[in-house]
Write a structure and sequence with these properties.
With 1379 residues, this protein is of the alpha+beta class. 26% of the residues lie in helices and 36% in strands. Helix 9 runs parallel beside helix 11, helix 18 packs parallel to helix 20 and helix 21 (615-629) crosses helix 22. One of its GO terms (molecular function) is lipid transporter activity.
Length: 1379
Amino acid sequence: MKFVFVLALVGATLAARHHNQQQQSIDVQESSFRADREYRYEFNGQLSAGLPVPSTPQGLTRLQSLVTLQFTKNNKVRAQLSNVKLATSQEKQNTREMQPMKRFEQVELEETQVLSLPFAFTYKHGIVSELTFAQNDQVWSENIKRSVINMLQVNNLRKESKRNSEEQEEQDNRSVFVSMEKTLEGECEVVYSVEETEQHNGNQKWTKSINFDKCTQRPTLHHTQVEVCQDCETLSQDKKSFSIFQFNMTNEYLVDSVELRSQQLFAPMDSRHQLLGAFTINTLKLVYAGEQQEKMEKITEDKKTSDLIYDQELEIAEQRWAQTGEEKYLRQMQNAYKNRVEMIEKMFSLLTTQIQEHVGSESAHTVARIVDVIRTCNEDDLERISKIVDQQNKREILDIYTNILTLAATRVTIQEFIKRADEMSPVKVSVAFKTLVDLRYPSTEIAQDLVKFCESTRNPMIQQSCWLTYGAVVNGACGRNSRVLAQKPTCTRNTKQEIVSKLVQRFEASQNKNQQILALKTLANAGLDLSIYPLQKIMNNNQNDILIRVQAVEALRRLRQEMPRKVQQVLLPVYKNNQYPQQLRVSALHQLLQTQPEWPVLSQIAQQLRQETQQQVRSFTISMLRAIADNQSPCEQTFAARVRSLVQTVRFEKDEMLQSKYVKWSKYSLKHQTGYEMNAAALFTSDSPYPTDMMASIEGVFAGEWNKYFAQAGFNQKNIQKVLRQIQKNGLEQVIVRGKRASDEGFHPSEIWKNLMEKLSFTPRQQNSEDPHALVYLKYRDMDFAFLPVDVQLLANGQINVDTLEKMVKDIKFTQTAAAFLYETTRRVPTPLGLPVELNAKVPTIANVNGQIKVELTPKNSKSFEGLRAHIKAHPRVAATHIASLTIVSPMTVTGTKFIHEMVLNTPIDAKIEMSWEKEFNMEITHNNTPAPQLLSLQSRPVTFTKTIDQNARQYPEPTERTWMLENNQVFTNEMNQQVGDFKIEGTWNMPTMHRVPSWILDNSLIVSYEPSEKTSQLLKCKSDMCESKFDDVTAELRINKERRSFELDTQFRKQQFRYESSNSMNLEIAPVCSIKSSKVTTFDRVVYSNKLTKCFSVVAKDCSETPRYTVLMNNAKQMMILYKQNEIEFNGQQSEQQPIVKVNGKQQKQMEQGETVENKHFQLRLIDDSTVEFKSSDLTVRFDRYEATIQISADYHNQQCGLCGHYDNEQNTEFVDASNKQVEINDFAKSYVYNNGKCEYNDEHFSKNSKHFKIERDEYEQDDEQYEQEEPRQQQEQEQDEEEQNETPVQRTMVIERSQKICFSQEEVAQCKNEKNMSESKRQMVNFLCLPSSNSWAKQQMRQIRRNLAQPWQQQDKLEQQESVVEREYRVQVAQQC
């Protein structure tokens, strides 16, 4: 009897369900929403995640339920979901259509029962508000309920107001209006389109779409900090995302049915390939409208009412747990396993086995899973895990555990890392700290933990890493782009003030320069707005060292975007102050232009440039402005156009050597929304012949995200020439010593040298007495990542003591295992199904290396050494996996699609290095070849996955994965099996026929093996000016041409030869050259002036240090004398029919054959041709051909040179310094260097102030500009006079016009008058032009040529079409009819 009853009940239920599906028109007894009535809807939702191509497999989540609504008074509605079904699928299905539930695998978990809890909301004029949920409901369940009610929101109040408007015409059956609404996906602008259809009994069709470009609030989460790209609207992630609703409604606004289609696209690569996307289909169908059958209970209002926007409480809980470590947030997290310690212990055991067998891609996956679980561990859990790790006492796990603690990056894992820091090596601790620079969830609480440790540690290496990391964490928590979800601010103004005050106090209390630099770099990483005032005081304080002041300027870099105007107000006066050091001014300019200033600031820079007297500052400014003007970055085109206009008003000089420069190389593709930009800069100052600052950086756009200031490396120094001069003077073997060693070389001047110094009263040039100091630094994402100070303690007395270093590297055995995330970014976006999708990209990496290093300095028992021998034997193995996944997140199931790219590198190393530098530098590197069956392994595969989450699981739940493959007719498969020398390449590459599927995400593989044919290979062999290398079938030879300041690279691969010759735009060659004739001198600093030599010798160039090494003298009688060390060399070219007579120490040398070289201990002499002889030593080269002498000196004589060739300090306005070291007029300057030895005479009037023999000449560009400015008006005047005498007829010529920063040339000849003023009749006509940027020098030259010679046809049309950046334009212009 019971069985019959149950059977009848089941049958009735099934019949009722079938009836409900068919009752859409029968059981709807209402035409509007009314109080005391019940409405039932059938809800179906489907969410897919994967490649946004319908025919490809994807991870799917399906939801189905019956929704019951009971309307009460005052627009209140009680609601409940019943018959809820949640299911997932990995099968290949058409994701653009709703699929039947039977194709999915249903999830049967207790957690789904909360979906049946009732809830309530207010529904007025179609707008949903004041949602109330049951006390024991959960956030994820509430969001799903929001997604259902979101389908009912339709703003009929705006429709009514538009219907009643007088402007609305009666015959119009369609209306469009816009409103701001709170929807599930945020508070955004919503566009409505309404169509009233008579054929459906006057029902209405409404269409509603969300404009994601105009949202005041979006509940999204993005972990990676990226700069805002002001000019790049096309790079917005939301441009191709949409949500569209289609409503069928009665005239009284009863919603009969709704269909929603939504798309979220991520990581766009180009117009064809959208890497990952989520697609949602929701439907809501009215199946019953009538009397209430069973009244729902009223919801107790214990909870606060909320709105329709997706609730981010779970995301906030995850964030606050990581930031604070408070247990209450951990309890709210839905991904916290209860048996996580046991789970991690098992994964560590698995990882140990994987490492012992071999480090592979699975090892990297295991590391990522451990990090995922350990992020949910509390202090007790970590204490237990640490005991387990310590008890196992396995070196590889102990090493990796440290990395995992910092990769997890929660407050409790960071605290555990700090506890264990004392047990680790300083290098390990320092490297681990770097992981925290780009912290996922920074907070002031974590910053406080870090600062306590920073203050307690005494190790300099750990101190540096700790303080720099502290600054980065402060910036993440308190900076403008802090990664904190909507909540009360945790970083108040008082907190910022305390942080700034603490760091400023550390700066003021610093005992040495390195500590000051560390304090400033910490302030720079923190990037707090309140730091700008103390930094301004530091940079303007003349008592501070120049490196400190420069670091204060650099410390403003994080404020460039936050408060650009204030930064400009601070830095512009620094740049304009000529009394400030050049290094400080240029640094200020660099930071100033990074703020992208407006015209008022740019105009002041231009004005300063026109009156700039410091050559290096001017050179750097011009080169940086030009680099910005030519920048192709799509994110900076507005500023680039602004600077291009400025650049046109400034005269440029030739690119000379030894000039400070800023260069930029960029390549961008708007189509692919990807590109790169490389910057390099070198700054020279009058204090040093070597660059005071050098910098190289890289940035760019990848996959639509702007990675500005991605990475930067640099070097700055002060007085480093002291050490380099010591090396040149004594040799490297005297500088790098075991113990201290003094130089035994003295200065022993000859008689003539003594006489010369007495006669001319030379005052030695004073060298900079400050200690040498250098700083090498590395920045990552605009954060100071690390820096290495090199100061007088390491360079004492110009010597480097390597006793300690030698002991350290004598014999090192090592085994090391490390883990890292090379990259990790997360973006979470809610979908209309109420479940978020999470885009996660990361590169878990694990490396293991063991080996031995032996270094031996030679000779063994000497105070100095002349070389070294090293033997490096190691076996590194690296595995990295790039995972890009799009996951549908819920507390019960996880499903989605991921693209996996795996790389395993196995490179055994057995290399020997031998170096020597006794006479010249030699280096040889050989390698003992070891077979590598899998030298390199690369794999890619697309995977769909599902995972059921059980909070009580004792083992990490492995997802069910399926590698999806295209059908045979959708892909071409290429098999690779090739031998290239000793390398064997095997693999498979699949090429899809569908253009929307990129090939690099498919199932591909590549394995490179190495089987050497020889036991030993000579990898590299170098001499002073040449390097050659050979490996397998590849040979390369690099030759350095010192005279041409270039290099040539010859390579050969399988008998095919390639050659490359450098043309370096940076041109950092620093060997200065001076040329002198009897009446003209070009100095080392390129000042050209007239100077008439006398019969007496004049000092042309001289080492004016306290221990001079050379002097060069010349007269107008074709004679030259060189004093070098203890030698006197004379050139006499008075006999023009013979080669110059050469004497060395008074002894005439025999005549030389052309090209012949005579060697001496300290120099060599060479006859270049019949009239030219050359003297050459290590630091001085002189060529003399009777009429002209060319002198080239070493850059080490910077600020130590005197004579007619100038002061040599990289500045042209300090050139005329006389023998007594005073800056004088040019005639007194020349007279001070005349050497009268009693055997010659000269007239004093020759050097009078009014003498015409001495004057400064302009450079070539200035002469050309002046000549053109004078010549053009004259030619134009003559032409106008000729034209006035007779009437002319229009001629067909190329027309040139200037439009919007462009110079344009007509593609066809156009009728013109030879003089525009004589055009009497004309007509406007459309003409096609080819245009070039107005900054193009070739275009300017051709424009001048055409306008000067309009009577002659222009012959450069072919070259115009070959120019870079040429574009076609069409303009309406005046065409001559009569002249």
